[in-house]
Design brief:
Elements: E1 2-4, H1 5-20, H2 24-38, E2 71-73, H3 74-88, H4 93-97, E3 99-102, E4 105-108, H5 121-129, E5 135-139, H6 145-153, E6 158-163, H7 166-178, E7 185-189, E8 200-205, H8 220-223, H9 239-248, E9 252-261, H10 267-275, E10 280-286, E11 292-299
Parallel strand pairs: 5-6, 5-8, 6-7, 8-9
Antiparallel strand pairs: 1-2, 3-4, 9-11, 10-11
Helix pairs in contact: 1-2, 1-3, 2-3, 5-6
Length: 301
């Protein structure tokens, strides 16, 4: 059984539009590409697509229809409709597809990890622009996107990724293996520094920094579908920065650096938290929208 391409696509767009608005056609095309890739189609009729800003920011490959030109097989139609139904429940696009592009690579994601976001790439960029590093610590590694991206860029570097959640570590292991850096990466279950030994040239971290009182107002894609442990920053959003500050100095080598993602209003209070520890030089870096996004610390004393 097959169904007409235009009819199936129009149905998906119509169902998505009340929820995602002007993104409806883009998401429908994306789900259609995904559905047909899963059904292993291979004919000559390309599906039109655009870039997917919510998942990758990168254009995907053209997919193909199966059977008669302009028609889609039943398996792909079923998969597409399931994807649309999930999206109507506000499940993030990346979770439905099972991946998200970050930096230069495609990372597996699911409900156990925070969805890597484009603004977090600023942290990778700043890490690579600074002094060279051979030993990396990724605190709260989640999907492993920071650690794996940095190891891929620095073939001589090694690193440790820690996370409190074993399910998240399983996702990170898959991603690190796919990127071919597993021989230089060690993953451990740890509550920040509790299972960490040694010193590092570079510490990176995207900690939970949303104040608990703000979580109910977040979009359902975040509030309902992403792990609470990855977004909850306590009463004021700063509790994890305080915990990390208490142990950071002992884990940095002299002139070592630590880079943290922060909320756009948190540069001042986060700087003050680390200033109380003494011995850190501080820089704040904006994201592409000009908002404070990364705080960089250098151990100078």
């Amino acid at each position: 059984m097959t169904e007409p391409f235009e009819q199936v696509l129009a149905e998906a767009v119509d169902r998505l539009r009340p929820v995602v608005g002007e993104n409806a056609r883009r998401e429908a095309n994306l789900f259609l590409n995904h559905a047909m890739a899963l059904s292993r189609v291979d004919t000559r009729y390309p599906v039109r697509h655009g870039t997917d800003d919510n998942v990758s920011g990168k254009p995907g490959p053209s997919s193909m229809l199966t059977g008669d030109a302009g028609r889609i097989d039943a398996s792909a139609v079923r998969t597409l409709r399931l994807a649309v139904a999930a999206r109507l429940q506000r499940q993030p696009v990346s979770q439905i597809l099972g991946y998200r592009w970050f930096w230069k690579h495609r990372f597996s994601v699911n409900q156990d990890v925070l969805d890597p976001r484009p603004e977090t790439e600023v942290l990778v960029e700043r890490a690579l622009e600074g002094p060279d590093f051979l030993r990396i610590l990724d605190l709260g590694t989640g999907s492993g996107c920071l650690l794996a991206s940095l190891l891929a860029e620095r073939p001589k570097a090694t690193g440790v990724g820690i996370d409190i959640d074993e399910a998240a570590l399983q996702v990170a292991r898959r991603n690190i293996e796919v990127l071919g850096v597993s021989g230089r990466a060690e993953l451990r279950r740890s509550d920040w520094f509790s299972a960490v030994t040694g010193q590092f040239d570079l510490v990176v971290c995207n900690p939970p920094y949303i104040a608990d009182r703000e979580i109910p107002a977040l979009e359902p894609e975040v509030r309902t579908w992403e792990p609470r442990v990855a977004i909850s920053g306590g009463e004021d959003g700063l509790s994890h920065f305080r915990e990390i500050a208490a142990g950071l100095r002992s884990r940095l080598r002299p002139r070592g650096r630590a880079l943290f993602e922060i909320g756009p209003t948190q540069a001042g209070p986060v700087t003050e938290i680390f200033a109380q520890c003494g011995g850190f030089g501080v820089r704040v870096h904006p994201d592409l929208d000009g908002r404070d996004r990364v705080i960089e610390l250098t151990l100078v004393a």
